[in-house]
């Protein structure tokens, strides 16, 4: 027997996974720049940095499984792989976590602590709890170079952020402006579109009468007013126009005239603008530039005033509001005093009541519409007019658009390029300032007159400011010297901007800042551009597009003569789909259908989860995940485990100098040929990012070809007496087993590494993670065809037995009808094997099939199964007729449902999809029934 560690009887993932992780870590298996790969071609992926507050969810599991498959695959192909890991500081999320912790511990809050002390607490929290998701990624098997782990607020990345801000400001691509932002009245900060959740709300649509100037308002006389519809009557106080469509004949004569704003008395114009939809509401809309994103653009087109009537907390701010009060009649001042300070929703009720009292409300209709809410605060988000820092995204977008148009960067699937172009070609200025404390503080300082000084360091900014004010004779040279030396003396004279940068700003620099830019360009030269970005579709605009803009802009400076392909951050963007529940519904806590990947790893092992996700990751198709699917692939792992135990028990061990091209046994030649096919298809699939095709091809080869057929074919050999054939077969079994462990390793790294370690006798490569990818094996055409014929014959006979309800224990004869010499030789060679697997009593040659025999075509020849007397043919026909009628009824029922427009429009997406799947299953069942009925005809 073989003298080495034995494979345990049962496969237990929990016993394996932690041990394999330690082996990889101790060996530094995933380090980039290994000495032996110094001259190898690099392969680089940057991980989409998860939030430091995060915990592994199913999206992370899919995203990182796919990245890991590529990294392990390329590492085994000899590339110098850098999978760059790291986490994002997650401004709002982290600040909220720490604030909540302070509140739970009944400790002083953020404002009480002050900025410096609060930030100390955040860093303390990060040190204690910030590594949770990194450890969870390691549990999944992520083969990142963890020695290079980065954090978006570490010192190096912070220097990159400051340098980018300063340079873009110097170039006029970062500037300050007063525009509308998504404002969270609870968190008191601007937030990105990604942090806004649209929630369906049952509200109202108020139709309001705005009196025409010069007419005596009469609610019963439509010629004295124009009707506008709104879902937000509280913002009407800030209206500065009424808009109608230029082609709307109903209002053509009113364009250029004015209305008097109800309750307020402000005279506002009627303007013609295509934004107004003649088919919607009354066709006339109120324009509130300071409280609606669309109205803001209408206001800019018509040079309208911007009157903000809400404060940061979402309460009415009228008293002392010069923009609101300017030009109002005296009676309106009392209204301002009465409404000032009211919460927006309380104000809504009061304003509507007053409008009704004066006859300004024509009607109120129930209206279900989408209302933006903060995804963290849960409150209704306000479009809020405020001074913020912006990036000129339109200017930066042009080279990024050109890169995709030229093919320097391509999307997989390609249809996502259309989404990319739509977003980029309609891009708005990017608001990058946030009213938070946790984040990269904006490197801008203000003088006493509000003049801005942007610099990489405080010393530089202060020096520039003091020099400027000394030159302007605002301060004396001596005052300037004292202020430069003593921070306390300049306090209140020069102050730093308190805002921090949007988290996406630092993330946009991830592909090059993580490589040491701007301090050291060694790794930038070697590993930039990266090779592929793997990410979800929801952040194409927020992250992918911004990495494209920043990468091209700053790497073109580093490589002025380089083509676009050398400055884009990645040549390929692979967009994976969503992971949904088994019915196709989107996972959400409110639905209670969230599947925790860590629970699945606990129950079935990381390998089973990884393989499930890969096998279901078809391009452009969402994954419907269930625990049953994961359990099925856990069974696949068990099948591999048992196959390796079978090899071990039959003394199949690696032969160091084994040459597969010298094998003579047909079964051995066949499995090598099957592996030849599998390897080629697998490599093409992975190169094309068809992860599901790659996984399914491996599955078919391992389960069907190797375990079910090849190992079955070897059993007679291992109990036989021919020692030479045994030696060859043992060597082939072990060789193919080793090759299976290699090709399966990117998908199921833990079990394959364990089996590699246990069967490591005589093997030069001690670590599977660093083993060489298989080279192309020999292909034996005759063996490939012969065993292929045998398998087709067995499968066809088994299928007919099942279709015709032949009892499992009944042996039936097989007739070869006018067989060729080749078929006779094959039948003779495989007679015993075939009889055992297909439950055949014997094989006979016939000139024509016996009466009552079912005829089958295998290859190009006819075989027959005499079933007369074995089954009741007429009863079988009746059974099939019933089955056919049932299948037809199922198809008809589903067709009726899907033809019902009301059902398709109102039923949840997953229910409609489920009905389509039922139809597909019924159609497949019907096809099999018809095939069985055709076979029965040949038996008459």
Question: In a few lines, what is going on in this structure?
Answer:
With 940 residues, the chain is an alpha/beta fold.
Care to describe what's here?
The radius of gyration is 36 Å and the shape is globular. The strands form ten sheets. A four-stranded antiparallel β-sheet has the order 6-5-14-16. It has a four-stranded mixed β-sheet with strand order 10-11-9-12, with helices on one face. Strands 27-26-29-28 form a four-stranded mixed β-sheet. It has 940 residues and is α/β, with parallel strands linked by helices. The protein is 47% helix and 16% strand. The mean pLDDT is 92. Strand 18 and strand 19 form a beta hairpin.
Beta-strand residue fraction: 15-25%
Through-space gap between termini = 57 Å
Question: What structural class do you assign from the helix and strand content?
Answer: alpha/beta
Count of β-strands: 29
Helical fraction: 40-55%
Low-confidence stretches: none
Give the overall silhouette. Answer: globular
Task: Tell me the major beta sheet.
Answer: 4 strands, antiparallel
Radius of gyration: 36 Å
SSE topology:
Blueprint: H1 13-27, E1 42-46, H2 58-76, E2 80-84, E3 86-87, H3 91-104, H4 110-113, H5 115-129, H6 132-140, E4 150-151, H7 155-170, E5 174-184, E6 189-191, E7 196-211, E8 225-230, E9 241-244, E10 258-260, E11 267-272, E12 284-287, H8 293-301, H9 322-325, H10 331-339, H11 344-357, E13 361-374, E14 382-391, H12 393-406, E15 410-412, H13 416-425, E16 430-431, E17 433-434, E18 444-446, E19 452-454, H14 458-471, H15 477-485, H16 487-490, E20 495-496, E21 500-501, H17 503-507, H18 510-513, H19 522-527, E22 533-536, H20 540-558, E23 572-576, E24 579-580, H21 597-604, H22 606-615, E25 623-624, H23 627-649, H24 666-687, H25 691-718, H26 723-744, H27 749-758, H28 781-803, E26 812-817, H29 821-829, H30 831-838, E27 840-846, E28 853-858, E29 861-866, H31 873-899, H32 901-906, H33 909-938
Parallel strand pairs: 1-2, 3-4, 9-11, 15-23, 22-23, 24-25, 26-27
Antiparallel strand pairs: 5-6, 5-14, 7-8, 7-13, 9-12, 10-11, 14-16, 17-21, 18-19, 18-20, 26-29, 28-29
């Amino acid at each position: 027997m073989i003298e080495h560690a034995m494979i345990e009887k049962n496969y237990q993932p929990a016993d394996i996974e932690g041990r394999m992780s330690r082996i990889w870590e101790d060996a530094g298996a995933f380090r980039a720049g290994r000495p032996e790969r110094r001259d190898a071609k690099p392969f680089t992926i940057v991980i989409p940095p998860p939030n430091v507050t995060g915990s592994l969810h199913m999206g992370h599991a899919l995203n990182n499984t796919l990245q890991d498959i590529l990294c392990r695959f390329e590492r085994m192909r000899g590339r110098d792989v850098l999978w760059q890991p790291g986490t994002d500081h997650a401004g709002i999320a982290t600040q909220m976590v720490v604030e909540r912790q302070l509140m739970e511990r009944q400790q002083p809050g953020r404002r009480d602590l002050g900025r410096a002390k609060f930030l100390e607490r955040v860093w303390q929290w990060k040190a204690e709890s910030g590594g949770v998701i990194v450890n969870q990624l390691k549990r999944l098997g992520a083969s990142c170079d963890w020695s290079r782990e980065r954090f978006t607020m570490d010192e190096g990345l912070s220097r990159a952020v400051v340098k980018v801000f300063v340079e873009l400001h110097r170039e006029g691509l970062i500037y300050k402006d007063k525009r509308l932002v998504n404002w969270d009245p609870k968190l008191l900060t601007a937030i990105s579109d990604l942090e806004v959740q649209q929630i369906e709300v049952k509200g109202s649509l108020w139709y309001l009468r705005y009196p025409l100037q010069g007419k005596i308002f009469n609610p019963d006389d439509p010629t004295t007013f124009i009707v506008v519809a709104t879902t937000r009557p509280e913002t009407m106080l800030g209206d500065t126009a009424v808009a109608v469509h230029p082609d709307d004949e109903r209002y053509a004569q009113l364009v250029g005239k004015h209305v008097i704003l109800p309750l307020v008395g402000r005279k506002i114009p009627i303007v013609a603008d295509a934004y107004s939809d003649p088919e919607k509401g009354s066709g006339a809309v109120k324009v509130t530039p300071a409280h609606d994103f669309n109205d803001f653009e209408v206001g800019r087109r018509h040079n309208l005033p911007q009157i903000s009537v809400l404060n940061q907390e979402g309460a009415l701010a009228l008293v002392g509001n010069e923009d609101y009060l300017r030009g109002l009649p005296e009676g309106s001042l009392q209204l301002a005093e009465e409404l000032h300070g009211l919460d927006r929703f309380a104000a809504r009720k009061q304003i509507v009541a007053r409008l009704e009292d004066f006859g300004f409300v024509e009607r109120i209709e129930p209206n279900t519409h989408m209302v933006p809410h903060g995804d963290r605060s849960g409150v209704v988000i306000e479009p809020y007019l405020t001074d913020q820092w912006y990036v000129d995204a339109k200017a930066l977008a042009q080279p990024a658009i050109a890169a995709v148009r030229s093919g320097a960067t391509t999307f997989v699937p390609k249809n996502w390029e259309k989404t990319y172009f739509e977003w980029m070609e309609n891009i708005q200025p990017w608001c990058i300032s946030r009213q938070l404390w946790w984040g990269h503080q904006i490197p801008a300082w203000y003088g006493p007159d509000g003049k801005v000084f942007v610099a990489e360091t405080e010393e530089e900014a202060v020096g520039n400011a003091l020099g400027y004010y000394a030159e302007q004779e605002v301060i004396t040279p001596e005052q300037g010297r004292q202020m430069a030396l003593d921070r306390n003396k300049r306090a209140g004279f020069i102050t730093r901007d308190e805002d921090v940068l949007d988290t996406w700003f630092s993330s946009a620099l991830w592909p090059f800042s993580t490589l040491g830019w701007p301090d050291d360009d060694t790794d930038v030269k070697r590993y930039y551009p990266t090779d592929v970005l793997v990410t979800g579709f929801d952040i194409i605009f927020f992250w992918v597009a911004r990495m494209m803009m920043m990468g091209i802009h700053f790497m073109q400076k580093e490589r002025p003569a380089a083509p676009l392909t050398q400055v884009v951050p990645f040549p390929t963007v692979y967009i994976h789909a969503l992971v949904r529940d088994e019915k196709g519904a989107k996972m959400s806590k409110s639905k209670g259908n969230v599947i925790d990947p860590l629970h699945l790893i606990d129950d079935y092992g990381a390998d089973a989860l990884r393989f499930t996700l890969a096998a279901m990751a078809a391009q452009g198709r969402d994954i419907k995940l269930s625990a049953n699917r994961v359990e099925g692939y856990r069974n696949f792992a068990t099948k591999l485990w048992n196959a390796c135990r079978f090899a071990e028990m039959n003394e199949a061990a690696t032969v160091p100098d084994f040459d597969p091209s010298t094998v003579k046994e047909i079964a051995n030649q066949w499995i090598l040929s099957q592996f030849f096919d599998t390897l080629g298809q697998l490599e093409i699939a992975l190169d094309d990012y068809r992860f599901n095709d790659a996984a399914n091809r491996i599955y078919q080869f391992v389960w069907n070809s190797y375990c079910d057929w090849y190992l079955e074919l070897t059993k007679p050999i291992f109990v036989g007496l021919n020692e030479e054939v045994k030696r060859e077969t043992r060597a082939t079994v072990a060789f193919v087993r080793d090759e299976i462990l290699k090709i399966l390793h990117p998908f199921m790294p833990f079990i394959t590494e364990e089996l590699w370690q246990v069967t490591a006798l005589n093997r030069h490569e001690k670590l599977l993670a660093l083993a060489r990818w298989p080279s192309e094996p020999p292909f034996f055409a005759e063996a490939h065809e012969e065993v292929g014929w045998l398998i087709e014959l067995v499968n066809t006979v088994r299928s007919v037995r099942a279709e015709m309800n032949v009892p499992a224990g009944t042996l039936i004869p097989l007739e070869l009808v006018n067989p060729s010499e080749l078929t006779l030789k094959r039948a003779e060679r495989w007679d015993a094997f075939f009889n055992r697997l297909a439950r055949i009593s014997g094989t006979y040659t016939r000139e024509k099939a016996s009466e009552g025999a079912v005829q089958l075509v295998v290859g190009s020849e006819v075989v027959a199964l005499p079933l007369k007397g074995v089954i009741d043919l007429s009863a079988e026909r009746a059974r099939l007729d019933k089955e056919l009628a049932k299948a037809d009824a199922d198809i008809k029922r589903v067709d009726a449902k899907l033809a019902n427009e009301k059902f398709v429009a109102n039923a949840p997406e997953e229910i409609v999809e489920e009905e389509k799947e039922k139809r597909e299953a019924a159609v497949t069942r019907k096809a099999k029934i018809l095939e069985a009925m055709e076979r029965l005809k040949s038996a008459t």
